[in-house]
Amino acid sequence: MTQRKTIFEKKNVLVAGGAGFIGSHLCDELVKDAKVICVDNFSTSSIENIEPLLQNPDFKFIKHDLSEPLDLEKFPELRPFKVTIQGVQEIYNFACPTSPKEYEKLPVETLLANAFASRYLLDLAKQWDAKYLLASSSAIYGEPVNNQPFREDYWGFIDPTGPRSCYNEGKRFAESLAMNYRLHKNVDAKVVRIFNTFGPRMRLTDGRLIPDLVRSALLGEPLQIYGKPDATSTFVYIADMIDGIVKMMKSSEGGPINLGNPDPVLLTTVAEKILALTQSTSTIEHVDEHPFASRQGVPDIRLAKDRLGWFPTIELQDGLAQTIEVMKASRVISYNPS
Description:
The protein is α/β, with parallel strands linked by helices and 338 residues long. It contains eleven helices and 13 strands. 36% of the residues lie in helices and 15% in strands. The strands form four sheets. The chain has a seven-stranded parallel sheet with strand order 3-2-1-4-5-6-11, with helices on both faces. Helix 5 links the parallel strand 5 (131-137) and strand 6.
């Protein structure tokens, strides 16, 4: 089909899963220069994440479950964006539960999000000749072998039926679908593999390391670290991750490309930094590994550096300080029933 150009002053972009942690930060960035259509069903996200944007005339929210097709021309609230004429120019797919605690609660929903949501969004990209970006995950690599950094050409070692399989295999399928739409349907589809990211708006009940540790420190409870004392992970602050995602969309690259921090950090070190920043007197405890946990791998980010000019710049200490300040203001943390 003939490519549809942006014929008004700003392009239209769609962010699926836009009320989630990364998605909402992406909406904050994109709305500076574009008209943003945020689609979410709040299965694991929150209206509070996008509340500041709801009064912005260049931001529209649509509540929709992307396991069903999405026809943007049927939503009257999108008339100011002239979608029927202009369509959309970019589609970002973040429509998938990502919390380890959700794997047990929403296993089928997680698989359907990666299957049906990906298909319907790719069909929209085909319809409007839009760029499409899939937020994939380091989970597609499985656990590290011989402690080697994950390169994009590594196929991964995955358990297809284990407790994390709904997420890991779902992302692998979503990647395959994106690449086949690129190869056989002429869709400008891109894939980024996102490694451990942290920052404000992470849900306190997600079961993720940093929000769990910050919450415990602020409440004076023991900081629990799952697994062995020498366990490590990598951490990218949300602002760096958004920068990488935007650069990928602007580029001519299809990927997959890793976005992550290549420098692993001891989890004990992270806990100690949080204790210092919160001035907490809590202790650090090592407990048995979580059943949904897996050993964390380290990304090789040479492709991101060479082709996108991207690498993380925000130090862990600075990112933690900003995250803690936001979490301190959370009613969940400050609330004292006594």
